[in-house]
Automatic annotation (TrEMBL):
Annotated ranges, domain Major facilitator superfamily (MFS) profile: 70-258
GO cellular component, one term: plasma membrane
InterPro entries registered for this protein in UniProt: MFS (IPR011701), MFS_dom (IPR020846), MFS_Efflux_Transporters (IPR050189), MFS_trans_sf (IPR036259)
SUPFAM superfamilies assigned to the protein according to its UniProt record, in alphabetical order: MFS general substrate transporter
Protein name: Major facilitator superfamily (MFS) profile domain-containing protein
Keyword Cell membrane: yes
Cell compartments where the protein resides: Cell membrane
């Protein structure tokens, strides 16, 4: 799912960059591409809903989570991972602008390369999971993000920044599938749907919360300091995982089961 969404972004980002060369308003035309899908959805809504067997649901005897159930640890992980995944691309154009790269198509090219390598690596998550634990993959992702974001923040040229973005794309590719697979495997059936919904919601709100938290830092200390704070967060998450992996009580491996 992550790879497919990244593939759509791979197609949209370079087109947006080329349109941006003609004017900052033109990239917004890409939102019109959703109209055919909206039409298809409206036609689908007119169809009668499939009949569901109440008896089958009763026989399954699945215990549904109470309304007060809230997976706090998983939501916190989702927020932190969302910050690592989505906040860096938001600031990429501004950091490249500091290096003298203002052309939208050039910025779009850099983001496209990051997305491309991320999609290729994300597809390999299942194969990697057969050989390494989720904790090991999480450490790889966070450690790679720490190095990549630090290099991007301190990049003296466009080529160094581009290489840093490739490392960021490689490292971040397994964050979401790792979190989602662990979430699904760690909760019982009656709580799985609600838990996954909370986790995906935390990923969705993470960019807004992250930007709100970093904007004062950017005003006071500059964009480079804000990026280094993201790198520091990734490093802390990596070290914390390694520490608790040794003691077998880590915040990555300790998931609520009810």
């Amino acid at each position: 799912m992550l790879a497919s969404s990244m593939i759509s972004a791979i197609l949209a980002v370079p087109i947006a960059g080329l349109l941006g060369d003609a004017g900052w308003r033109w990239p917004f035309l890409l939102y019109l591409s959703g109209l055919p899908f909206a039409l298809m959805a409206s036609l689908g809504l007119r169809q009668s809903a499939p009949r569901q067997s109440i008896e089958a649901g009763a026989e399954a005897n699945v215990r549904v989570a109470p309304a007060t159930f809230f997976p706090f640890q998983l939501v916190l992980k989702g927020l932190l991972i969302g910050v690592l995944m989505y906040l860096v691309p938001i600031y990429v154009p501004f950091q490249l602008s500091r290096l003298g790269i203002d052309k939208p198509s050039t910025i779009g090219f850099a983001l496209t390369l990051e997305l491309l390598i991320g999609a290729l690596v994300a597809i390999q998550f299942g194969r990697a999971r057969r050989h390494f634990s989720s904790q090991s993959l999480f450490m790889f992702s966070c450690g790679g993000m720490a190095v990549g974001v630090t290099a991007f923040a301190l990049a003296p040229s466009y080529h160094v920044a581009l290489a840093s973005l490739l490392l960021i794309g490689l490292a971040s590719a397994w964050l979401y599938p790792n979190l989602l697979s662990r979430t699904i495997a760690s909760v019982e059936d009656g709580r799985r749907g609600r838990t996954v919904g909370w986790v995906k919601s935390s990923l969705a709100v993470a960019p807004a919360l992250g930007v709100a938290a970093l904007e004062p830092v950017i005003v006071l200390l500059g964009l480079r300091s804000a990026l280094l704070m993201i790198a520091l967060l990734a490093a802390v998450m990596c070290i914390s995982t390694q520490r608790h992996r040794i003691t077998r009580s880590g915040w990555v491996s300790r998931f609520p089961r009810g």
